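General statements about sequence and structure are easier to judge against a single worked case. No coordinates are needed to read the tokens, only the vocabulary itself. The sequence in question and its structure tokens are set out directly beneath this paragraph.
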Amino acid sequence: MSMKKNSIGVDPIYNARELGTGKMLVLGVQHMFAMFGATVLVPALTGLSVATTLLFAGLGTLLFHFLAKGKVPAFLGSSFAFLAGYWAIAPNGEAELLPYACFGVACAGLIYLLLSVLIKAFGSGKVMKFFPPIVTGPIIIAIGLNLSQSAVNNCATNWWIALIAIAVVVVCNIWGKGMVRIIPIILGVLASYFVAAVTGNVDFTAVKEAAWIGLPVSFDQTVFSIFKDLDVSLLITSVITIMPIALATVVEHIGDISAISSTVGKNYIKDPGLHRTLLGDGLATILASLFGAPANTTYGENTGVLTLSKVFDPLVIRLAAYFAIIFSFCPKIAALIECMPDATIGGVSLVLYGMISAVGVRNIVESKCDFTKSRNVLIAALILVLSIGINYSTAGAIAFTIGKVTISLSGLAIGSLVGIILNAVLPGKDYQFKEDV
């Protein structure tokens, strides 16, 4: 097994192809576990199909890798940013209303495509000047901290089970040798799941009742089903309500790509280009939504796994996508994973979400943001306070009405927009976008 030094750190980087087929498959499973909890949580909260979600998380990831020339180690899972949109159209997960919400999300994906075209035409430099580290760094920090509540809540269901997962991850990552150090997440999941099972904290009834083989897509859950008896007013309402959410998810995408670039030590905004990653994310979201799955987004959870494992080969991510597709056709396997205790998911998530925020901190430190300047302090402060404060407020979002339509913007959307605008208008900008890392 050969290793090389990361250009942005001292930890070794492992070449997945030289680890051998068996170890590569295990790494792929680890990435699949990392994304699974959050990916299936979105359909669980909205009423969308878990099987369809897994299928299009896998297909969307493969489409993204194809359009990004197979260079970016990113996994596309369910986006939490659109939850407010689904709830606005189908507040109780009504099966007949969800396809309308999915249509609105598919239209939101068109914003990605438009921005991709503009970047291709005018260059990423003219776009990236609006997203310097003083903006993207706090956004990445906020992404991780906003996710932290779900991790803690999951841990709270059984702290002893969660602590086993956390302890195994920490011990394997710090003191583990060879393969043990590379796969701390999956080892933490297996150890915690095993202890939970033998202590009677897992209900396997759903596994016993589930079939071995099943189709992951139902026509009645797709957007195409609404045209049998189309409600034009509801369709327009869905589009107007949900499309603005893309303003937040586009910024989140840029933050995630920046985080992955910082983690790996390669400038993916330069090569394969931000226009390609946005195109892949947007098309994956459109495809998933049309067939009744949640919007896709680049996943910070898997960036955390990259940071821990030091295996940055995109092939490992594609293996996770194949596993997700296979599991979508097997209700019994999906049920087995769904039976995983919330505390187990919470334990590993607690580590991964913290790693996301840590990457944001590193992004600020390595870019040498000057915090002696008041403008930089104000930008970072407002992004963090708005993104986190609004998210944890009673409403959880800021809503405003246009005519008869109510639009809700999440804390991350508000914080990101405020940061972008302040950076653009305040004097003293000292950031110059360069093609080098």
Q: What stands out?
A: The first helix runs from residue 21 to 46.
